[in-house]
Task: inverse folding
């Protein structure tokens, strides 16, 4: 292998796929994954482009070290989000991710533009691709994967076909998802049902990279984070959040959940029929049998569909998660949509009987959101049009719900809150927050507010340390910026979220030097260069969002977070608006951005982005002095 130097460009309107070389400067400065995807989006999208229109780009990205890194293989889905209207990068691991890297061969990404008039799939093999008609429109994610037993599949389910703004791209029969922000809706709008990866997984291009991968994997398995991950994956998150009083419960009304033990990691161990990768030192998630087949719950499933909806039955929560997996709908956004519906029902804003603690009705709502009523799909497998078929109200407890409520909720909780004047479910940039309540740790509020894709806990998660110490604003700012930069680097390498975190240091240097030796290509090979790459990528995404109109106002927190938590260890905790504005000023100043939340010319010069910024992108005005 000579290294990854190309991309595949699929134009679904023209029905063509072509190879093109990645500019050398882009490849070295942005690597792959998030960074390279952001560079292509910033270069090719006009401001205000319709996320569901043919001009939007949907990129399936790997990194320069894909196939050579320890931990779970991953890929990045990068596009403009139909939920937020801003940049979106979403990640998924598993078999599709590793076979995508092998099938792309010397390519760093598949870039998809245009719209097909009929449903299609893209098949990838040996660094080439072809567009093929798809007969799977209307199939759920398990059914769509089963149609290609000899390959790995990433696909959309009914939610993506219905253009739900938080539809996912599901891989490995719904076990993994590029979840938040609606990449699945973009895929559905393009008429693209699936991407098929036919080659075996990529392998390290040199013995030295293979040695480094094995050595690092062994060290990671023995490290504290590796042992934690092996013990329970992310399912322990609900136990942690409940213990510290930061578990958003029953539509963000409480900070603790009495049913945590019933749906937490110990319950998963008891119910499990096995682990995802039982022979690996870090064996992955717990496999759970449900009436509709096997599912692998993650921490967000238990927190949002369990505590968030007041459901204290493990089997019921697992089934709810499995329902989302098959339909291809994000569990965090779907759970918050159901919670909003309960609150709207209680206030009399809608005519429906929906309550917390009712998994059957929650399932019916989620199915309706995805375009499925009762046991009958509203999506025609041959053409994609809604049939409007009637269903038995007994099989669908929300069959009589006003269709405009569901139609609006498909656009996100913010759209429903505005239309029906019912708030209380917090969002940032129109993305619903995960179930870590930031009122228990103000650094988490800063992480949510400044997240480049909207309310997201994966850009930075300072709550894991802040709740155990007395943090100052300076501590919060330092922790959030460091995590955001590290994740930007890791996701440009498309590394495992956990095993890849130390690649910002000497380990990352060792891997990239070995890759350079094996391929003859130039990469960042000092710790300083890697650190700057992470910051450059984060700032480039801020430029993209600024060109779409984002500024300080979009880093605001919802009013509900200024109200105190009512129970548990964090009772009385709240986000004081004036204090948060001071914290946000400090974050901007540390980033080298102006008070308006926009990068300054000096910062762009330092990060070699001045020549990248176009005339449609505003820049920030520096703070006048250090005390301002």
Result:
């Amino acid at each position: 292998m000579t290294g990854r130097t190309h991309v595949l460009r699929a134009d679904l309107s023209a029905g063509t796929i072509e190879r093109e070389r990645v500019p050398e400067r882009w490849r070295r400065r942005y690597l792959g994954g998030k960074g390279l995807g952001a560079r292509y989006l910033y270069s090719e999208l006009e401001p205000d482009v319709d996320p569901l229109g043919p001009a939007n780009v949907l990129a399936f990205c790997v990194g320069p070290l894909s196939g050579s890194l320890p931990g779970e293989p991953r890929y990045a889905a990068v596009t403009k989000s139909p939920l937020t209207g801003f940049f979106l990068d979403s990640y998924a691991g598993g078999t599709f991710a590793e076979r995508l890297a092998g099938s792309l061969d010397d390519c760093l990404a598949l870039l998809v533009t245009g719209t097909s008039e009929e449903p299609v799939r893209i098949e990838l093999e040996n660094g080439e691709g072809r567009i093929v008609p798809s007969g799977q429109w209307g199939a759920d994610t398990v059914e769509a994967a089963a149609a290609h037993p000899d390959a790995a599949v990433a696909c959309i389910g009914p939610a993506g076909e219905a253009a739900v703004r938080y539809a996912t791209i599901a891989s490995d029969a719904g076990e993994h998802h590029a979840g938040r922000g609606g990449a699945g809706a973009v895929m559905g709008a393009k008429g693209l049902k699936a991407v098929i990866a036919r080659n075996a997984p990529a392998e390290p291009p040199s013995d030295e990279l293979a040695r480094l991968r094995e050595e690092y994997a062994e060290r990671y398995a023995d490290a504290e984070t590796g042992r934690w991950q092996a013990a329970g994956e992310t399912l322990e998150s609900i136990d942690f959040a409940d213990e510290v009083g930061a578990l958003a419960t029953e539509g963000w009304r409480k900070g603790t959940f009495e049913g945590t033990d019933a749906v937490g990691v110990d319950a998963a161990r008891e119910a499990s029929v096995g682990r995802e990768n039982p022979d690996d030192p870090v064996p992955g998630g717990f496999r759970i049998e449900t009436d509709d087949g096997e599912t692998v719950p993650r921490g967000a499933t238990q927190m949002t569909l369990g505590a968030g909806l007041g459901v204290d039955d493990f089997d019921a929560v697992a089934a709810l998660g499995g329902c989302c997996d098959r339909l291809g709908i994000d569990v965090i956004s779907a759970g918050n949509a159901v919670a909003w519906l309960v609150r709207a029902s209680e206030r009399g804003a809608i005519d429906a009987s929906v309550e917390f603690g009712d998994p059957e009705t929650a399932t019916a709502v989620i199915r309706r959101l995805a375009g499925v009523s009762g046991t009958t799909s509203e999506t025609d497998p041959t053409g994609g049009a809604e049939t409007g078929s009637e269903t038995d109200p007994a099989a669908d407890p929300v069959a009589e719900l006003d269709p405009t409520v569901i139609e609006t909720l498909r656009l996100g909780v913010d759209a429903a809150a505005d239309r029906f004047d019912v708030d209380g479910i917090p969002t940032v940039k129109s993305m619903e927050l995960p179930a870590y309540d930031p009122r228990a740790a103000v650094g988490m509020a800063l992480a949510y507010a400044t997240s480049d894709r909207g309310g997201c806990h994966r850009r930075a998660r300072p709550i894991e340390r802040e709740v155990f110490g007395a943090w100052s604003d300076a501590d919060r700012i330092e922790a959030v910026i460091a995590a955001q930069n590290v994740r930007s680097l890791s996701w440009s390498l498309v590394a495992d979220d956990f095993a890849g975190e130390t690649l910002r240091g000497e380990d990352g240097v060792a891997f990239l030097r070995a890759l350079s030796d094996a391929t003859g290509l130039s990469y960042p090979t000092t710790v300083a260069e890697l650190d700057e790459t992470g910051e450059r990528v984060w700032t480039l995404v801020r430029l993209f969002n600024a060109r779409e109109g984002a500024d300080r106002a979009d880093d605001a927190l919802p009013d509900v977070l200024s109200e105190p938590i009512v129970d548990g260890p964090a009772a009385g905790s709240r986000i004081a608006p004036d204090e948060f504005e001071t914290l946000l000023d400090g974050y901007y100043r540390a980033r080298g951005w102006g008070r308006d939340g926009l990068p300054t010319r000096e910062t762009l010069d330092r990060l070699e982005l001045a020549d990248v910024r176009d005339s449609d992108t505003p820049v920030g005005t520096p703070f006048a002095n250090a005390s301002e």
Summary: The longest strand covers residues 74-80. The chain has 24 helices and 19 strands. The mean pLDDT is 93.
